[in-house]
Amino acid sequence: MSYNLLKGKRGIITGALNESSIAWFVAERAVEEGAEIVLTNAPISLRMGKINELAEKLNTIVIPADATSTDDIENLYTKASEHFGGEKIDFILHSIGMSPNVRKGREYNDLNYDFFQKSIDISALSFHKMMQVADKMDVLNEGASIVGLSYIAAQRAYPDYGDMSQAKAVLESIARSFGQKLGEKKGVRVNTISQSPTVTTAGQGITGFDVFVDFADMLSPLGNASALECADYVITLFSDLTRKVTMQNLFHDGGFSTAGISHAMVDRLSK
Ligand SMILES: NC(=O)c1ccc[n+]([C@@H]2O[C@H](COP(=O)([O-])OP(=O)(O)OC[C@H]3O[C@@H](n4cnc5c(N)ncnc54)[C@H](O)[C@@H]3O)[C@@H](O)[C@H]2O)c1
């Protein structure tokens, strides 16, 4: 259902790889809510994924950008501004994560440090870079909203989430520090959403991911939040209904983050 929550707004959506990507749902919902968007992803993901199909469906363009490259980000904003007829940007979704260590199955006590730096650069510093370049180029509208996607492994230890735990902790911290800066300067909001485990390409790269999903679902009184439900939450943060929400890490997880044990787990574990 559409409420026209983003009517007249323009935004950039990163990270839509295929129809299971959280960003894919956000892009579809943003357009449904009346926004104009441009899509972007790393050049290699453009070749592997289905983003062009999404662009066609939503009648928009794809601007390739490796989010670790400030040159690519500059080009992204220049082209996006052209597409928007010189108008500024009202929202940005950062939906980017990748750890070479996790992808190659490296144990936490056997990490490759070049990979570790890549994980942090791709999954966290890219968030800073997108905001720093946006600030320097002055492409953000007054009151714009920037959202990054996080996971509870930033706060708790998970055996196979590897160096992504550190990347998410950095991501959440950047939201606070840059949120303060951009808030004072332009009333811009910056938040992260800590989402339930969700079956996507990035999610499935983690060993034992199906167990993460089942465990979280069993513990959460409302059950796991789906990618579409995550997109709905992102839309509220892009909208004018949340103008004073900033510098937060917002759990969108069916109650998982504050649940101790559930009846379902007691039943499952009872001898
Ligand atoms: N799936 C989950 O369980 C889950 C849970 C909480 C948070 N998240 C986070 O949600 C975000 C989106 O992930 P997803 O689950 O939709 O998976 P996904 O694999 O569909 O999306 C990850 C995206 O990151 C992009 N990317 C990787 N390297 C890049 C680079 N250098 N430059 C630009 N883009 C790059 C990929 O192309 C891909 O589109 C990630 O930050 C992820 O950590 C996912």
From TrEMBL:
- Main enzyme class: oxidoreductase
In the Enzyme Commission scheme, what number(s) does this protein have?
A: 1.3.1.9
Pathway in which this enzyme or protein is active: Lipid metabolism; fatty acid biosynthesis
Organismal lineage: Bacteria, Pseudomonadati, Bacteroidota, Cytophagia, Cytophagales
Task: Show the catalytic activity.
Answer: a 2,3-saturated acyl-[ACP] + NAD(+) = a (2E)-enoyl-[ACP] + NADH + H(+)
What keywords tag this UniProt record?
Fatty acid biosynthesis, Fatty acid metabolism, Lipid biosynthesis, Lipid metabolism, NAD, Oxidoreductase
* Name of the protein this chain belongs to: Enoyl-[acyl-carrier-protein] reductase [NADH]
Identify its protein family.
Belongs to the short-chain dehydrogenases/reductases (SDR) family. FabI subfamily.
Q: Which Pfam families match?
A: adh_short_C2 (PF13561)
